[in-house]
Amino acid sequence: NAGVTQTPKFRILKIGQSMTLQCTQDMNHNYMYWYRQDPGMGLKLIYYSVGAGITDKGEVPNGYNVSRSTTEDFPLRLELAAPSQTSVYFCASSYAIAGVGETQYFGPGTRLLVL
Amino acid sequence: GENVEQHPSTLSVQEGDSAVIKCTYSDSASNYFPWYKQELGKRPQLIIDIRSNVGEKKDQRIAVTLNKTAKHFSLHITETQPEDSAVYFCAANPLGGSYIPTFGRGTSLIVHP
């Protein structure tokens, strides 16, 4: 199993540009998440999904959009990039049933720089 | 919602010493408590976890204790080594609702050779 994969690894964007961060998991997990981590800081939840076709906002959703058309893929869309979106973005997945939370598996991260 | 406090934010120890990181949570319905280690430039990875029906769990040099009455849990690392240097995050997973974990702010552990 590849686990959770993310592309690209690193990207430089100009202010106002848009891009999509890709995330794929091959563990058949129902839950998927997007976090951002600013330098020296903790993880902030942007969006999450509890299954295909279902998404919901996290703590810091402004400026981002997501979709979940399949169990495996959970892309994160940045519209009109701003310097405040410079960060490292982690995708994660987990399997939760009947109220039993489970381990999150994280992707390798995408480092984004907005200039 | 759940609130997780983690202390200390930075912990500096000598190689061979023990290190203890503490977390408190607010939602008594939380039932799963993982600990993640994040090395510099890498992704967070699970190192140990504990469920609410267990008071202590050990895996070689690391252990986690849980006090549900006081709503706190702790990570214990014995015989620390330089490769233990990393940021450690605790989390609490609620029972019910969206089952979305709440993370602590992280502890930067530095082990001096």
Gross morphology of chain A: globular
Shape of chain B: globular
Main sheet properties of chain B: 6 strands, mixed
Strand-residue proportion of chain B: over 45%
Largest sheet of chain A: 7 strands, mixed
Unreliable residue stretches of chain B:
none
The helix fraction of chain A, in percent, is under 10%
What is the mean pLDDT of chain A? 93
Average predicted local confidence, pLDDT of chain B: 93
CA-to-CA gap between the ends of chain B? 41 Å
- Tell me the number of strands of chain B: 11
What is the straight-line distance between the termini of chain A?
36 Å
Number of helices of chain B: 0
Plain-language structure description:
The complex is a heterodimer of chains A (115) and B (113). The model of chain A has no long low-confidence stretch (mean pLDDT 93). In chain A, strands 2, 4, 5, 6, 9, 10 and 11 form a 7-stranded mixed sheet that branches. In chain A, strands 1-3-8-7 form a 4-stranded antiparallel sheet, with no helix packed on it. Chain A starts with a strand and ends with a strand. Chain A is globular and about 45 Å long. By secondary structure, chain A is mostly beta strands. Chain A contains no helices and 11 strands. Chain A has strands spanning 4-7, 10-13, 19-25, 31-37, 44-51, 54-57, 64-66, 76-78, 87-94, 105-106, 110-114. Chain B is an all-beta fold and 113 residues long. Chain B has no helices and 11 strands. In chain B, the strands form 2 sheets. In chain B, strands 2, 4, 5, 9, 10 and 11 form a 6-stranded mixed sheet that branches. A 5-stranded antiparallel sheet of chain B has the order 1-3-8-7-6, with no helix packed on it. In chain B, a hairpin with a 2-residue loop joins strand 6 (56-59) and strand 7. The N and C termini of chain B lie far apart (41 Å). Classes of the chains: A mainly beta (115), B mainly beta (113). At the A-B interface, strand 5 and strand 10 of A face strand 4, strand 5 and strand 9 of B.
